[in-house]
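Task: fold both queries, return tokens.
Query 1:
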Amino acid sequence: MLEEILPQKHITDFEVTHQFSSIGKRTVLLNALEITRERKEEKLILLSIEDITERKNALEIIKKTGERFSHLVKELPAAVYSCDAQGRLLFYNEAAVKLWGRKPEIGKDLWGGAYKILSPDGTLMPADKSPMAIALKEGRAINGDEIIIERPDGTRSVVKVYPQPEFGLSGEITGVISMAFDVTEQVRATNKLKQSESAFATW
């Protein structure tokens, strides 16, 4: 194996999986650099070998878990969607499509798929100031922030969102996943109750 690789003058992060007789199957990263000496007939190679077997196994588990998760949430009644570390939309289920009133483009739309996001007072909220964006930028979970979603047809819903940042093996933020619940009817009922209480108090 090394005889084929080492003749190259410079090798960076060359990944090799090999079955060793003593320690079994391992995946390693090779880095090599040929060092030039005054006596040209003398060839020296600086070689670094890093065992990344556990890291590879962990990443494979994460990948399989993600695939199972996507299958699981696809049919959930709650809207579920996720973004990568740059805020690009990675995944959404059918409940999210129903909530947004549109099918956003994976890898292109940012911070979700809402046509417009508004604050509870009705003012327009920039997408990069949305709870999803804040969870990613600040690396913290946001539990139940209330926003207003406006659809392309002009209809609106009051929504509670729960974005949670996701972290990689080294602690870096790799993205955000969020659930969203339409609470429009609950908000309307609460407002009617408050109005009734106010009217009764002044009666």
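Query 1 returned. Query 2:
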Amino acid sequence: MAKESDSIYLKGMGDVEERAVLSGYVGASIAKGLWLRSSLELGSGNTREGAVLKLGASYAVPINASLGLNLSAGATFANANHMGSYFGVNAAQSAASGYATYAPSAGLRDVGIGIGLIYKITPKWGLGIGVNATALSNTTMDSPLVRRPRYATAMLGVVYGF
């Protein structure tokens, strides 16, 4: 979801409405501590024809009985409908916003890496902390709407193991 009122940089761009999407997730452990994961999201964007595929891997390294390190990397791919809704500028939006028209193609949207720590309080409960760095692809970065081609996020949370 992106609202025109969320930023002065979106003036004249209109809203990308919030809506339900169909999502699926598959993950598999292929070796001790090594996980591969993928997810597919269908129905995003203005036309509800957007599709996003995320692929990634993570590796968990036990430091001691209570503390573990997690390293991750991933990539996000999107079809032209999704890319156009979030990074494109059509003729009407160009006239209203002053941005040049831009029609991003389908393909790589971004790549990211992350590092995290999990501290086990009990065998089932723990605390997690982590940071992720994401870089947009050239196609995404070339959008006149992009202000930062790289960004970082941090998380802190409670972990429960089933």
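Both queries returned. Flag for query 2: The chain has one domain: 4-160.
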